[in-house]
Amino acid sequence: MENIEEENTITSKIKVLDIGDEEEDIEEYPIEKTGASKFYRDFQADFRKHLSYLLFGTHSPIEFVDDWNLVGRFGASVHKKDNQTRSYSFHYTTDNTTPPGTIIIGPAINKRAAMDLVRKRLSDENWISENEISTPLKAKLDNRYYYRDQYIRQVVSDAIETENSRLLNYLLHLHREYMKDKKL
């Protein structure tokens, strides 16, 4: 019984700081007045100038083109042949289309490097063409097709992630070199 009274005593002594007015309307202060959007625009402009300098050696900003079709996509599709055989093809597209049977697709800058990573990881599999493998997969998986599809998704996802990581590491290297030169 004493514990309950102590808890009530402790919680009753807590005060909450209330900032603002209950009647205040949030819409009175749009984002433009707070400066958040101005900060974002300034950051974008500075970032583009810096990226231009790192990549091209000039401070004139990169022109921003809002067109996702300029970014290539690397992915995998599954194809069913007769009732048993399934094959997986790996493809690179530069437009907004998705090939039939696609199980994964993602942005990739260097399609050859992504394909090389997939080939290396699936080197033991039955390659029936330059960009297609056939089942059964030699990897130790459950026999259900879901697990095979998930395995291929993971291989492609890892390849895309590795390529994106390499690109970011390269930009980081350029930035570090720039900072080193700037200090001299």
Q: Span from first to last CA?
A: 71 Å
Kindly report the spatial arrangement of strands forming the biggest sheet.
3-1-2-5-4
Main sheet attributes: strand count, strand direction, barrel closure:
5 strands, antiparallel
Overall tally of domains = 2
The number of E-state strands comes to 5
Task: Characterize the structure shown.
By secondary structure, the chain is an alpha+beta fold. It has 2 domains: 30-64; 68-180, no CATH class. The protein is 47% helix and 17% strand. It has helices at 2-12, 31-34, 36-56, 111-121, 145-183; strands at 73-81, 85-93, 102-107, 126-129, 132-134. Strands 3-1-2-5-4 form a 5-stranded antiparallel beta sheet. α4 crosses α5. 11% of the residues are buried.
Short description:
The chain is α+β, with helices and mostly antiparallel strands and 184 residues long.
Descriptive key words:
single chain, 184 residues, alpha+beta, 2 domains, five-stranded antiparallel beta sheet, 5 helices, 5 strands
